[in-house]
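We now fix the convention by which a protein and its fold are recorded. The integers have meaning only within a learned vocabulary of local backbone shapes. The record below shows the convention in full.
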Amino acid sequence: MVCGYGLMGKQRASSLLSAGIEPSLITIVDPFLDDQKSANPEIHFVKDLSQLSLDSFSHAVVSIPHSSAVEISHQLLNQGVQVLMEKPMGRNLEESRQLIQNSFSNNLSVGFNYRFMPGVKKLRAIIQNQGLGDIHTIKVDLGHGGKPEDVNSWKLNSIQAGGGVLLDPGIHVIDLLNYIFPRSQHEYKIEKTVVWSGFWKTGIEESAYVIGSVGKALLNLSFSIVAWKTRFNLEVVGSDGYALLQGRGRTDGPQILITGPRWGWRAHKNQASSETMHVHSIHDNSILYETVGWLNGDKDVANATDGLISEEIRSQILSVIA
């Protein structure tokens, strides 16, 4: 089952088909569906969950506005369904804690698809193998270009969305920190957060800068939904070298991961010639890979504990807004 047939719901449904799920086994639930939303007549479309017997489903994707996602996820979990809930795991820490307290929260996964980007996976392997030495600096910059139609989007509504750029898409970055550099949330020390909300003016934060530390590493994060171009940059510097991850394979261009040694210019023509390109991915297939991983029980798919940790870190970030 796929609850919600917007941008993400359509990608999840397409991923299920690519994963080999028979169209006749897929049900789409969306109150705004018309009668001809799919070219595949075998897919079942309904407008309300009440039209279905929930305990007849083994898996469900929840791709609906944040204001409704928690309630629907609870309903599905209580019927023993394996749930993949699009990030975030609730609009705030209270909602995240409600979900983790569900008796079936072990059946809850959270859609943090950045984990399944090839550059992210390779960078994580390099970090875990101590390829850069002791990490002392982590910098992430995530920006969305947006579009004029966003003025009508629920994501700019503080009630429906639950927050601004620090929640969506910022929670992706927070989860990546948890995924690439596993640390207890108590090792995060957020010193200061500065936000700006002057373009859409709906009450949500539109740009944010965060400084602090995680473990022994300095942390520098920036987020924007008014960057006018989409960008994703992750820089890690350690005692033995550095890594640069850029792009997502979308409108921001290919995803590229480059590493370089400390003082590489000493043994090469220049620093650039000492660098190694590990990944050059033109297309972003992370939604497909994550969906397949979820169906197959891949442990890299974020679970409820991961979702809660991300929200706990975000709460720290919110607590020190200047």
In short: DSSP finds eight helices and 15 strands in the chain. Residues 193 and 319 are 8 Å apart (CA to CA). Helices lie at 7-18, 66-78, 93-100, 118-128, 158-161, 170-180, 286-295, 304-319. The mean pLDDT is 95.
